[in-house]
Every structure is written in structure tokens, then in C-alpha cells.
Design brief:
Blueprint lengths: L7 E5 L2 E5 L8 H31 L1 H4 L11
Antiparallel strand pairs: 1-2
Length: 74
């Protein structure tokens, strides 16, 4: 699999902020908020992927009876 590079660009009151890793963000509050958003997004994507796999594997009718919920590990 090819490596994918992701670059983030945010508009802030002091101008645009660009970074490719969360540890490049000096403002801890912004870094924490982005970490939470990305974790939430990742969980939704994983849940959707699992639901899609179940639907493809077992069929739509049986998939309706299977509930998947991904939760954050503490």
C-alpha cells in the first residue's frame, strides 16, 4: 500500500496554519481540539466500514439486525 501524506490547513485569527502532524501545533488547546475531532472522525469511518463489510458479507436484511458501535478506549 502506498503511503499517504495528509496536510492540514486552518484559518485562524492570526492567519493560515498548515501542518502535517498534530505534534507540529504549538497551541495545546488547538492540538487537543483537533485530536478529539480526528478521533471522532476515525471512529465514524471505522464504524461505517465495518457496517459496510457486514452488509456485503451477510446481505442487507441480516445486516439490519446487527448493530455495531465503536467506542473510545480510556
Amino acid at each position: 500500500m502506498e503511503k499517504v501524506n495528509v496536510r492540514f490547513t486552518l484559518n485562524s485569527s492570526s492567519g493560515k496554519i498548515s501542518f502535517s502532524a498534530l505534534n507540529e501545533i504549538e497551541n495545546e488547546e488547538i492540538a487537543a481540539a483537533l485530536t478529539d475531532k480526528l478521533l471522532s472522525w476515525e471512529m465514524r469511518v471505522k464504524e461505517a466500514a465495518i457496517n459496510n463489510m457486514i452488509k456485503n458479507e451477510f446481505g442487507e436484511e441480516q445486516a439490519k439486525s446487527i448493530k455495531v458501535k465503536i467506542t473510545k478506549e480510556n
